[in-house]
Design goal:
Helix content is 68%, strand content 0%. The protein is an all-alpha fold. It is elongated, with a radius of gyration of 17 Å. This is Threonyl-tRNA synthetase.
């Protein structure tokens, strides 16, 4: 993984020539979210399955 600019350049090279601006924006958005998720995992900002289920139980109605 390089700089954000380098990462976007690589991504643009992989998209078809007729990719719309909306397609490009979407791919950048998804890439950014995945990168944030990877960083969260590396820094230990994760929840166990049990923690997620406990949090969701507050929202779910049976």
């Amino acid at each position: 993984m390089g700089s954000p600019k380098e990462d976007v350049k690589k991504m643009l090279e992989q998209l078809p020539d007729d990719a719309s601006l909306e397609d490009i924006q979407y791919h950048i958005f998804v890439f950014q979210k995945v990168q944030k998720g990877v960083l969260d995992v590396e820094e230990g900002r994760v929840l166990s399955q049990e923690e997620v289920e406990a949090r969701m139980a507050k929202w779910l109605v049976e």
